[in-house]
Amino acid sequence: MYFLNRLQIGSLLNAARTSALSFQRAFESSRISRTKMSSTGLPHFSVGKIVKGFGRGSKELGIPTANFPTEVVQNLPPEIGTGIYYGWASVDRGDVHKMVMSIGWNPFFQNTQKSMETHIIHKYPGDLYGLELRVVILGFLRPEADFTSIEDLIAEIKGDIENAKKCLDEPEMAAYKTHTFFTDPASNTLG
Ligand SMILES: Cc1cc2nc3c(=O)[nH]c(=O)nc-3n(C[C@H](O)[C@H](O)[C@H](O)COP(=O)(O)O)c2cc1C
Asked: Which PANTHER family match (predicted)?
């Protein structure tokens, strides 16, 4: 009788523990997704003239990037931390293309100035300096990282490009390709 009671109590305690754990997990995952949504400050719209970067993008990496001027970088809200992001971009009001963007100091190159470097997933015939770049930043891919070789950095960026392409095919993200920010000629800087 005594053992039966202990077993019963034990299984009751286990059941209670299991449901408390699953409640805690459900609570934590909803808290994480809420935090992600509210702390990233996304979507974020930026407009600016393309300036010269350090010129390593196309030469050393084979991955050209269009750089925003300092004022645009300084306009980023503090909730948008450094890291690698994806979104949509257009140059001089042309077609809207998928893009990946690096925000930060490029630990591999140890830059001293914070930059917003956009790699537009499209081949342009010439360089884009002085043209207007419009981007909407929609999602975070990963933090900036340091690498032991340039080949590893290139491989990581190629992975970012593939991940971004998939994320941007999601209907919620694809919808931004035709946002008035890109389509309305009267739309200027939204932030
Ligand atoms: C999608 C993407 C991811 C990047 N990830 C990193 C990174 O993790 N670490 C890093 O040091 N630089 C990273 N970079 C920055 C490149 O190193 C940078 O674009 C390159 O140095 C070219 O800069 P430049 O055109 O100003 O010379 C990334 C760039 C892009 C476009």
From this structure: RIBOFLAVIN KINASE (PTHR22749:SF6), RIBOFLAVIN KINASE/FMN ADENYLYLTRANSFERASE (PTHR22749)
* Each residue's pLDDT tens digit, 139-179: 999 999 999 999 999 999 999 999 999 999 999 999 999 99
Question: Confidence class of residue 5 from pLDDT cuts 50, 70 and 90?
Answer: low
Give the pLDDT of residue 21: 34
**What residues contact 173, with CB distance under 8 A and at least 6 apart?**
138, 139, 167
Own/partner pairs, 28-31, CB within 8 angstroms, 24+ separation? none
CB 179 within 8 A of CB 32: no
Residues taking part in catalysis: 117
According to CATH, the topology of domain 41-183 is Elongation Factor Tu (Ef-tu); domain 3 (2.40.30)
C-alpha 74/C-alpha 65 separation (Å) is 19
Say whether pLDDT at 22 is over 70.
no
> Which contacts qualify for 142-145: CB closer than 8 Å, 24 or more apart?
142/83, 142/84, 143/82, 143/83, 143/84, 144/82, 144/83, 144/84, 144/102, 144/103, 144/104, 144/105, 144/106, 144/107, 145/107, 145/108
**What is the distance in A from the centroid of ligand 1 to the CA of 179?**
27
Kindly give the number of the ligand 1 atom that is closest to the alpha carbon of 143: 8
Domain range list for the chain = 1-39, 41-183
* pLDDT, position 118: 98
